[in-house]
Amino acid sequence: MRTIGIIPARYASSRFPGKPLIDIGGKSMIQRVYSQVRQTAGLHEVIVATDDQRILEHVQSFGGNAMMTSTAHESGTDRCAEVINKISGFDIAINIQGDEPFISPLQIELLLSCFQSADTQIATLVKEVKSEEELWNNNTPKVVRNLKGEAIYFSRQTIPFIRREAQDQWLSSHKFYKHIGIYGYRTDVLKELALLGISELEKAEALEQLRWIENGYRIQTALTDHETVAVDTPDDLASIIDRYFK
To answer: How much of the chain, in percent, has pLDDT values that exceed 90?
Structure first.
């Protein structure tokens, strides 16, 4: 199998404009992401998919591989699909968040391992919920899986509902899982996903992966113990600098 890691990187962010180019300990965020991803043994190629000439030139300046993509894309999945439609020769594409400067290559390798099964169409990672804060945080999507480890449903609500337990006992009485937002796709499936319209479940929860489930695609999950650290706001950046560089 030929594999490619794709890092979507937009310049315009409502909460943090220019985020891929911010400095984190002497290197830009996109350079740190790219360097981490390049350490993944199972990837044959890594490319940054951007909509901004400044990001393109910056990636090229440190020897990275980058491609200009449309400014009209509404999701990283659509941006990844454009890359796959422009280049050929890859069987599996991994969509890697461009705002996780310390992403572990082991997580990417774990995701790639899901495709050892010919039945896997899409794959993603989940992590067991360990705290009450995570359990009840509506900004932390939860996922319910079947016995094959496939995602049945994703929700911002806490799922499943534990009927016969008080809510302060839910975490001790059942295993809950949160979603880790990294995806792998068979490239033929990725091309199909980019053609799907927004679904009703996606509208309700504002979770893109529900579009795929609603259209009958299967999402295999793998369980990770690693916690990713994302930079969504300037406050997140300050927290990361305090954690890693002070």
So the answer is: 89
List the CATH number of the domain containing 19: 3.90.550.10
Task: Determine, yes or no, domain membership for 239.
Answer: no
- Tokens 């993944």 -> residue: 40
Query: Lowest mean pLDDT: which of 6-20, 100-114, 128-142, 183-197?
Result: 6-20
The reply to whether 246 falls in a domain is: no
* Percent helix / strand / coil, the chain, rounded to 5: 35, 25, 40
Count structural domains, the chain. 1
Give the HSE-up count for residue 153: Cα atoms under 13 Å, Cβ half-sphere.
Answer: 10
The pLDDT value recorded for residue 237 is 86
Which amino acid is it at 189? V
**DSSP state, 150?**
B
Residue 65 CA, chain-centre distance (Å), reads 20
Residue 246 pLDDT > 80: no
Q: Residue 182 class from Cβ within 10 Å (0-12 exposed, 13-18 middle, 19+ buried)?
A: buried
Q: How high is the pLDDT of residue 227? A: 82
Nearest residue to 162 (alpha-carbon basis) of 140, 142, 188: 142
Question: Using CA atoms, how far apart are residues 60 and 79, in angstroms rounded to an integer?
Answer: 19
Domain that holds residue 127: 3-228
Q: Is residue 57, in this structure, part of any structural domain at all?
A: yes
Q: Which residue type occupies 88?
A: S
Amino acid letter, 123: A
Pairing relation of β-strands 219-223 and 142-145? Answer: unpaired
Measured in whole angstroms, the distance separating CA 56 from the mean position of its chain's CA atoms is: 21
Return the structure tokens found at 127. Answer: 């992590």
Per-residue pLDDT averaged across 36-52, rounded?
A: 97
Please give the average per-residue pLDDT across 184-199, as a whole number. 97
